[in-house]
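Researcher: Structure for this, please.
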Amino acid sequence: MDPITLAVVRGALEQIADEMDLHLIRAAISPIISETNDCAHGIYRADTGETIAQGRFGLPVFLANMQFTVQNLIEHVRGSGGFRPGDVWILNDPYLSGTHLQDVVLVAPHFVDGELFALLASTGHWMDIGGAVPGGWAPSAQEIHTEGIIIPPVKLYDEGKLNTGLVSMFTRNVRLPTQIEGDLFAMANVFSVGRRGLDSLIARHGRDTLSACISEMIERSEKQMRSYIAEIPDGVYHCEDFLDNDGIDDKPIRIALSLTVEGSSMHFDFSGSDPAACGPVNLARTTTQSTCFIALKHIFADVPVNGGAFRPTQFTIPEGCVVSAAYPSPVSGYLEPIGRVFDVVFGALAQAIPQRTPAPAFGTVGVVTVGGRQPDTGSYFVAVFPYPGGYGAHARGDGLVNGTPPVSMANFMSIEMSEHRYPLQFVEYALREDSGGAGRYRGGCGTQYRFMTRSECVVSALGDRVDHVPFGIAGGKEAAPSVVQFGIGGREMTPPMRSKVEKQRMHAGDWLAAASPGGGGFGDPLERDLEGVERDLNLGYISRRTAEEVYGVVVSEQRRKSGALRYSVDSGASARKRARMRGDQGKTAATG
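Model: Predicted structure, token format:
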């Protein structure tokens, strides 16, 4: 294979997928797509359903999930006459397409000279799916039918003819019919971008050359991923973590992984995980698999995203467990358990390759949804706020502050846009002091925000990481817990499930405050360089108390003319204090 042609074709295919992402982001009506980028697009092999290329502007959570969706659809369509030119299929059944009901998938075939050449797919998050809770995140759901409409694989377009009755069914059963209809047709129109790009490539290189390049791309990705896995010491690595609760029963839920590395292959075994939860914090099998791939991609970032990168992995995931839930288990809160799956993969790999594996990030999306009617028009509104947090530290540096969730990468919509669209007023959005885990390298800071409502509405929260916080690695410390609080009629209130509450009624002047964890720390805090501690103090990342008691430094302060405090670290006194603290730790370890 000519390497220049291969590189040009690979770049062009990735560009087509990128353009599909951008087309939907710019055309969508709902801000969860246009502002938060909650979408994804890809090109897939028509025979195997393997990913050829996926856009880089959508969410990582759909990385492999869309491949599994396409593969499941291929099996379904095979029994119903196959794909035809002009067809567009639609589904959101999470037991086939993963994630949750709000993530709707469209799949269209692309034909060349009358023969099926590839499949194109578009995933977009709908702001409402017709369930009991505005927005679809239902913290008290005990079955999927509470969460919204299930769309089995069905044709939206049949050989180019729109199923208008299906569109009417959607718009009649959601709170935001205009937004949903607009987003639906924007998603369907994305396929014109993909078809145009593929036709241009085929006209330039020919079908045979393009097919050969695709096969070579996938094989090279497999070889590259296998070469990286082969560098990991063979062995079985165990890690487990817990969800605080499922929103129904206030007891922890175990997610356990045994990761086997053998040669150039990996086997993920989740057999030790708890049964499916009663509440909505379950995962479909495909989402669990996809999350494992995302974790690997964070470590082996230069492996191209295509089906070859997924081939070296095998899975044992018992059906009916919390990470392979079956109908009718609810899944609207899937963003919480994927954080835990992500972290147990990191926790297992940290035992084998600690210098390449970061500590866990904040590990909760903490979605807050606000639903009600606009005070001026009376029309429904639904607002969605996934909060940013801190990333885990690693062997090369501190964790990112104010980062989007590493599995979903959903943006927090700008304050200005939020206040413009919804009857809300934000009174605070800030980095959260002392939220990152201490260490030689510090976990990134989480965030805290507070908004007041300007009219009557209902507010729901679906988060986690209050009781079981992000852990540190290699001697690093854990991060701070998440926090959700309400101010209702002048009275402060914490939900009984701490981070989960459904349809809390609020009136004008009431408020909600949410704070995300930081990331876990890496290494002994007493080994952090003094300049780093001083910088963190002056940036407000850590408090003076943490600097003195955890990092073992001696601090002096000076008030400037502006009134601001400037902290300084005494290097000599700090070195002596740290030596004493290490001695005390050694004595404790010896007598413990």
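Researcher: Any notable elements?
Model: The chain has a mean pLDDT of 96. The chain has three domains: 3-222, 358-523, 527-591.
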